[in-house]
Amino acid sequence: MSSTKQRASQACDACRQRRIRCQVDISHDDESDRICGRCRLANLPCTFNMPMKRRGPPAKKRRTSFHNASKSDVEQLEAAETTSRVISPRFPDVVPALLPEDDNEQQCYAGSASLISKFCSEPLFNALMQDYIGLLYPVLPVVHLPTFVSDLGNYRHRIDQDFGRFVLALCAVTISVRPDRFVDFKKIDPDFSFSTRLQAIDCVQSIINKTKPPDYYDHSTVEKWAIPLCLGRAYAYLGNRKAIYYHFSEGHALMQDLGCHRTSTYASLDHVEAQLRKKAFWLTAITYTHVRPEDPWWDSLRDRLVFEEYQASELFPLILDDEYITRGALLEQPHTRPSLMVGFMALALINNCLVSIMRDPAVSLFSTTMDCGSDRDSLGACTCGRHIIPSPLAGLLRSRLSTLHRVVADLPLELGPHKPLGPSLDQARSLQYETMRLNLHITYRWVQSLLIERLISLSRIGSEDRADLWDMLQNVCAELLMFVKQMTQEVLVLHGTSLSYKIRQTAASLLDHPFLPGSAASNRAQEQIKAFADILASLDAIHAKNVVVLGGGVLGRRIGYNVVIRDINQKQCDEALQYISENVATFATKATTGRSSGTVSATLDLEDALQGAWIVFECVPEILELKIDAFAELERLAPKDCILASNSSSYKSSEMIVKVNDDTKTRILNCHYIMPPVNRVVELMTDGHTFPDLIQWLSDRHAEAGLSPYIAVKESTGFIFNRIWAAIKRECLMVLAEGVSTPEQLDKAWMEILGCSFDPCMSMDSVGLDTVALIEKHYIKERGLSSGFTVDYLQSKYLDHGKLGMKSDKGGLYPKVQPAVVPAASTAVESAPEKKLVVLDMGLGQPLAGKGPAEIVYSGRLLEVSLDGKIQRVISKNLPLPDGVDFCDNKLYYTNMGIPSQNDGSVVSVNLDGTGSTTIIPPGKIYTPKQISIDQIAKKLYVTDRECCRIWRSNTDGSDLEIIIDTSTLPTERTTPGDVMSQCVGVTVAPRLGIFFWTQKGPSKGNLGRIFSAYIDFPTGCTALDREDIRTIADKLPECIDLDYVESSNTLYWTDRGEVPFGNCLYKAQLDDQGRMAEKPQNYNEAIGLKVDAQNDVIYVTDLGGSIWRCGMDGTDKRKVLDEQTSCFTGLTLV
């Protein structure tokens, strides 16, 4: 017999030293190979399964109440803990799992500046910290706010390595919960090249792990505890549950090592540190209650010492207020204003109530089927305590309900269920309180529903008590509906899946309501279920999740929302991204939704693409076997609530679902996008099992994206249009195969007879002849058609010779058109980069329904447009009524009018790529800035101020700001809107002549417009009010607006938006003969902006009707470059 035996104790050596039970790593299926989870985190050899002499159970830890124990007892306990308290990562021989691999990474230990720079630039870091402080703090208050802001201001992240790792973790969780800002983050930092949020978070995790020194765990701090909590939350928002477990396990162990659950450890701490440790405990407890109902295996994370033996009364109250305290001392009257800490305390109390119930084995709130693993009595019954008499259990549950009610009843009015937020709070603070308020009350109703559901299960069927409980539950659901209706998308995104889960679980509690025909209670339950379904559908965070497209081909490149494209070919991914980059702005502006375009990324990894998806489109080749396998794989990998759609143009989705379960079939359908890409028609069709409401709901989402959805009432091969199109293709191919005509003649006759631009043969080339053949094979097989003059003809004459259509070099039905050879540039002008237009859109042409005044005003955009009329990209957006723009030294300068009746105009500069936006003349300085013109020699800005009747001049950085023209007639007009006759609108500069020009348009359509000039240099002894050098160039004009001056011809051009026949025109005047005006083309739609391209003898004009026009210098060859009915164009320039 061996002298050693298998360990009978429940702790390995490491955990014995700490006197706690092991956290058994459940990832090992083989029990003989299991190790302690704490040892795994520390990368230590574990003795959990090693044979050794029996040493009995771990020594029991003494519990001493800090308030009741003598000082000597406390000191003795703390002394013992100081010598024996060891967290698994704190053993002396710890080696981090990921150490730097080279000398360069070893330098990270020296300082933290390089640590932040490894991830992002300083401007992006500042933006992320502002988002955390302004939006995420109420959800994740892991800092003492005043101290944290001070540390950032003192650049502590550049000096303190631990603090640098901590703020990096905050960056990760901020990126995770702000998908709507991910594109903005990439604009702030062009080198921030991550294509997905998951890649950015993985990078943060790698940097943190690689920069941990060997003695990292020798000293625990709240900041070190917060790092895994933040990383775990970051991964939780993206659904990576495996990573969540690892990070929360580490955070849980660090929290315990800090002694956050024992007030005896708080004696030597100052107020701020004590506050942070209390918050650390409650944040860990709240995290546990968030994830425990979704995954019962999270019980393996829970430490009995922490969550079953803590004394809640010793951890309350959280008397310090993060907003209004200084280190070590309270301010006077700290609660004179509403406090986020009050809300956090209430949330902690609610979760404490839930944790205390969850640790009672008799309650079993979340699972009645799991085997608790306890011993069984002689009758086979479990001895865990679940079989106690229901009466005491019901009393316990009702007691908890009363406790919850008292917690919520004690809330201040600002956090109450009905009290609106006070007007004194700014927008950022209001969002913080709204986030906390909704979190509190939704969590409260969720816990109420859990307790009431358990009480219902204990009550006797048909009893009056049971009916009262059902009525109570319906009242809870009615209150929850009220809060859900108040919830905005932004608040829901900040909370990730936790609030959404609580709402859904509470709503699901109604499904067990007994149905009695004609019963008022039953009818009320059904109405509430429907209301929850409708609201949850509208609040579902689809804009925070991704649309996934499998296949980066032509069809897969044009699906709206935030999109992730997955293809097995990197070239297809790159071409898809390039296509979207070139066309997304045009598609977005042609849609009449008023929404901005989404984001796009591409990947080769399917699992990476599917994370956070709410809908997946299958766009693989038209081969049925491929589609069947694709849906089987999607069922296995995609989220369980994800919609699965096929973009097939011929196969019914019912043919693709042979390998999926019945439940999955209810969320599968056909969703076919009609070619070519400019076509916005989408056909939706059931697979025979699809929820009918799902099809209509998805149709509404397509309409929101500016598409035109049509629903096939029943299954049909080819859906609606493609069934007709298949017959047209078939007859066209037969005409060609029989030699009756040619593709050119067939297309020409078709278009001339029907009066359309659709040409069938060219369209088949556009789709691809190989795809045409695959689709026709399906029709042949289904209907028993002949293939001789269709598929066989295509195969023998085209496909066998590599002629696939436009996508192949050999062409298709039409020969490949070779691009013209452009001779090498012979001059510097010929080799210069192609010019582009930059134009401002006020945004007033977009649909205004449902928008408030502020949202309408802040709808402006700065657009880059190619000379052929294609919108390339949006440089800046959400601008307050932008009006004028000019270009100088690789920077754009534009004006924002703001609200015309308020003194809130501004002048802003921005780089051509949209980065580096800087306000050079802030709101309050200038009233309503209109046209801006730049003296390219002196580098001076000239800006008209309409309401203040002034012209301003400054350097390009906004310095030396001065008034050079003041046409106001009364002193009050210098601060309030002046007389309409005195208002300045357009301005341009003629440096060679030493003068500048401006317009005063007069009344609308009043024929009282005037153009003036004055010298660039002030006359001696004059001011802006009494200049003597002002000359009238033209008067009695319909309504002159913007100006432009051409030095080479000494000519002044201007737009006029007055009444026809003399208004809505483009004018010019030769300055050597100021009395002679030459009239230019008419028939604009409220002509506004103007830019002369003298080098190419072209003039560009914008109008408020959403058009950009081009004409020659002599007024001939007028043509429309761009027509956007949802735009309202003002200023433009050439770059």
Automatic annotation (TrEMBL):
GO terms for molecular function: DNA-binding transcription factor activity, RNA polymerase II-specific; NAD+ binding; oxidoreductase activity, acting on the CH-OH group of donors, NAD or NADP as acceptor; zinc ion binding. It comes from the Eukaryota. SUPFAM superfamilies: 6-phosphogluconate dehydrogenase C-terminal domain-like, Calcium-dependent phosphotriesterase, NAD(P)-binding Rossmann-fold domains, Zn2/Cys6 DNA-binding domain. Keywords: Metal-binding, Nucleus, Oxidoreductase. One of its GO terms (biological process) is fatty acid metabolic process. Residues 53-74 are annotated as: Disordered. Residues 11-48 form the Zn(2)-C6 fungal-type domain. It holds the Pfam family 3HCDH. InterPro entries: 3-OHacyl-CoA_DH_NAD-bd, 3HC_DH_C, 6-blade_b-propeller_TolB-like, 6-PGluconate_DH-like_C_sf, 6PGD_dom2, LDLR_classB_rpt, NAD(P)-bd_dom_sf, XnlR_reg_dom. Residues 53-65 have a biased composition (Basic residues). This is Zn(2)-C6 fungal-type domain-containing protein. It comes from Aureobasidium pullulans (Black yeast).
